[in-house]
Amino acid sequence: DNDGHEKDEL
Amino acid sequence: MNIFRFAGDMFHLISILVLLLKIYATKSCSGISLKTQELYALVFVTRYLDLFTDFISVYNTVMKLVFIGSTAAIVWCMQWHPVVKRSYDRELDTFRHYFLVGACFVLALFLHENFTFQEIFWAFSIYLEAVAILPQLVLLQRSGNVDNLTGQYVFFLGAYRAFYILNWIYRYFMEQRFSRWISCISGLVQTALYADFFYYYFLSWKNNAKLHLPA
């Protein structure tokens, strides 16, 4: 996917 | 947010609070690896670069600040607190952790989601977290006996990562988009590193004996 890593995980 | 991830975050928080409690209550940091704490401070700083740019939720921001703040406090305590620093096992905590930092950074340059500053440092922090416990496990092996607060610290850290693996399995089945191979594989490596510690921890708990790691 284009927006990189999952942002919501710590 | 699912229950596995929330439980994982809580175990992670508990592990850091247990460590702060041990240092604050006993005014001693014997058995704790400063190098592991330095690696964790680096993990959090390089992973939460988006702390001030992307707002996800209050929970997310608060937890990031707590993780960075508490780990910085532990590193500060072990190096500068006049009483605590005397109990640091300097001669036992000799793992060359700079190699870990270098290796993880090189790996992040090759394996990342996007070739951007933030993504490379994020991948770096994921790889570094997987191996950050090594100086601590080596120190425990060398010091032989594990006092129960330090044992609990490592136990909760392992539980945190184990629950994150459950969280990734859960999200794999529940969500169409699954693009976290970097975290997943790195998290599996990290949990595997704890496996031997868990084995001895469980044995000592079952035999109600003091936790002794084979030298």
What does the model show?
- The complex is a heterodimer of chains A (10) and B (215).
- Chain A has 10 residues and is largely without helices or strands.
- Chain A has no helices and no strands.
- Chain A is elongated, with a radius of gyration of 7 Å.
- The model of chain A has no long low-confidence stretch (mean pLDDT 73).
- By secondary structure, chain B is mostly helical.
- Chain B has one domain (3-206).
- Chain B has eight helices and no strands.
- Chain B is globular and about 45 Å long.
- The termini of chain B are far apart.
- Chain A binds chain B through residues 1-2, 4-10, and chain B through 1, 5, 9, 12, 50, 54, 56-57, 60, 63-64, 67, 113-114, 116, 118-119, 122-123, 164, 167, 177, 179-180, 182-183.
Features:
heterodimer; A: 10 residues; little secondary structure; 0% strand; B: 215 residues; mainly alpha; 71% helix; globular
- Most residues in contact: chain pair: A-B, 9 and 26 residues
- What's the mean pLDDT score of chain B? 92
Radius of gyration of chain A: 7 Å
By secondary-structure content and strand pairing, the structural class of chain A works out as little secondary structure
The biggest beta sheet of chain A reads: none
Instruction: Give the proportion of residues in helices of chain B.
Output: over 70%
Helix content of chain A: under 10%
The number of strands of chain A is: 0
Number of domains of chain B: 1
**Termini separation of chain A:** 19 Å
Per DSSP E runs of 2 or more residues, the count of β-strands of chain B stands at 0
- Structural class category of chain B: mainly alpha
